[in-house]
Design a protein that fits this description.
Strand order of the largest sheet: 1-4
Structural class: mainly alpha
Distance between the termini: 24 Å
Radius of gyration: 14 Å
Largest sheet: 2 strands, antiparallel
């Protein structure tokens, strides 16, 4: 599975959305996969950018697009390569976070330890550019500690 598979599955599930919202939903899919499935959903790195977590590998697929449509990441003639556990995790993430705005999701990530810790390691000011990795270990530690660490049915 790759970040592109996750992003395309989200787009096909929810339809067109802003690139920023897509990035945050991908981030939360990765975070909750670490907790619920005890594995990373994808191997690509997530970085602590000024507007919240961003996966550069995904960013390169939608660069300069405000909105991203289904089929933009993986052509509609192909299916995202996700197993059943990954689809269930993404579906649960979309159920909870899917109706939130891009700005709400970005603001939430700015309150959470993984993004804050990465920016602290990089010693950058608020609003400054940053490419520091948000580590899998930090994500797992933080989201494991939250009360809502079971899938909503």
């Amino acid at each position: 599975m790759s970040v592109r598979d996750v992003a395309e599955y989200i787009l096909r599930s929810r339809g067109e959305m802003t690139a920023m919202k897509l990035q945050k939903l991908v981030y939360y899919s990765q975070a909750w996969s670490l907790v619920w499935d005890e594995r990373p959903m994808f191997n690509e790195q997530i970085q602590a950018w000024a507007n919240g977590p961003v996966c550069r590998a995904l960013y390169s697929a939608h660069h300069r697009q405000f909105s991203v449509v289904p089929g933009a990441i993986i052509p509609m003639t192909s299916q995202p390569q996700l197993d059943e556990r990954a689809r269930a995790t993404i579906d649960a993430v979309l159920k909870f976070y899917g109706e939130k705005s891009a700005q709400w999701l970005s603001d939430l990530t700015h309150l959470e330890m993984p993004w804050l810790r990465a920016r602290e390691r990089a010693q950058v000011a608020d609003g400054a550019a940053c490419e520091e990795e948000i580590t899998i270990a930090d994500m797992h530690e933080y989201y494991s500690g939250l009360q809502a660490n079971t899938r909503a049915n």
